[in-house]
Amino acid sequence: MRKMLLNPRDLRRLMQGRVPGQLVIQFTDHCNARCPQCGMRVTESFPRSRLSTDRIKKIIDGAAEKGVKALSFTGGEPLLFLPELAELIRHAYGAGIPCIRTGTNGFIFAGFEKKGFRKKVERLTDLFAETRLRNFWISIDSADPAIHEKMRGFPGIISGIERVLPIFHERGIYPSANLGINRNISGESIEPLSRNGDRKGNEAAFHRRFIQGFTAFFSAVERMGFTIVNCCYPMSLNRDEGGLSAVYAATAADRVVKFTPREKALMFNALCQVIPRFRSRIRIFSPRSSLRALQKEHGEGSVDAYACRGGIDFFFIGAADGKTYPCGYRGADPMGEFADLDPDAIPADHHCRSCDWECFRDPSELLGPVSDLLSGNLLPLALKWRRDPEMLRLWVEDLLYYRACDFFDGRRQIDLMRLSRFNMQQQRGH
Ligand code: SF4
Ligand code: SF4
């Protein structure tokens, strides 16, 4: 029987201004890829770690007791330790956590032309199919296979992914394509905004390139056979940037993911514009209300975006020390052992908007109004929606879309009829 996504305890928490808990466990920081956008690439030299399954099981049991609803196993590359990972997924579901996610850089799908490839993939998919893993992501960096393969350091991997998707689908697993937004999404690098000459013209050209880039990317992953896609917003922290210090080294100062605030505003706007063109064909996780909030944050210095729930309702466990952090980017704010943490006693008064980590920012934005409405925090919400009625419209649209997507249940097939009905309703509404 499927576990309930929200139970009376979760509703009570929402009425107290809290949102259902989320935990990201960095299972390992070992990785075999070469991504320029990440400090964990195989070419970086630092002492690598992996948390023991016993330690993680204790953390999972504590998380279930504390009402955590969503649990992600991230890396590094989690599939380097596949048997342990499958054991942990089984354990998490048994402990009562309904939304369990993990993913891969896809290394395991290289070498499709070799004997035994299909058997290897069948073993992997059978292993996952036996568990209640809800979402499985495969990272893709560019619409251009050659660029993606060069960035990751895995030749031939895109053809391999195309071949494995039907095997996953046969077993009722619908992987999502995870785009880490970068300057190479459509192939040719999108150059930084020029400070010389016609400012408006330069910005329009930059925006157009991202419109083309997102369009090319969504078309490419749809052609490959994906039915779900998620966009990870660029994380280019220098260690001293914005007072943040990364525990989770999925960040780098490389130009491929480094954007100025103005560039980010234009990029988020472009993504927000492209998404409706694809929403009836592929399930796109990125909420437009969140994109608008981030666009305003970077473009206008607006603080209308909901403060992030990192360190309040959402937490991160680092692979190096197994300790809790508010997220992967606030290494200077350790929170100790997860077992000792009482999330209900943490005051919700820390208003962090220091980065765009979509794992935490998107759900903070989507669940914020739910929590405000149920906890009676109505005046600030009404004023916010009065200042920007488009935020309300997009939020309602996101909720309807999420429902049409079965809340991105990666164990359910895409329902194209439902998505097309959603699309028609939206068009009638305009
Ligand atoms: S982004 Fe992922 S796959 Fe790439 S180096 Fe970092 S951890 Fe490895
Ligand atoms: S916005 Fe959220 S994810 Fe980013 S640094 Fe702050 S708490 Fe962490």
Plain-language structure description:
It is a single chain. The chain is α/β, with parallel strands linked by helices. The protein has a single domain (20-429), classed as Alpha-Beta Barrel (TIM Barrel), CATH 3.20.20. The chain is 43% helix and 10% strand. It has 13 helices and nine strands. The chain has a nine-stranded mixed beta sheet with strand order 7-6-5-4-3-2-1-8-9, with helices on both faces. β2, α3 and β3 (99-104) form a beta-alpha-beta unit. α1 (8-15) packs across α10 (358-375), α9 packs antiparallel against α12 and α12 packs antiparallel against α13. The radius of gyration is 21 Å and the shape is globular. The two termini are 40 Å apart. 46% of the residues are buried. The mean pLDDT is 93. It binds iron/sulfur cluster (SF4) (2 copies).
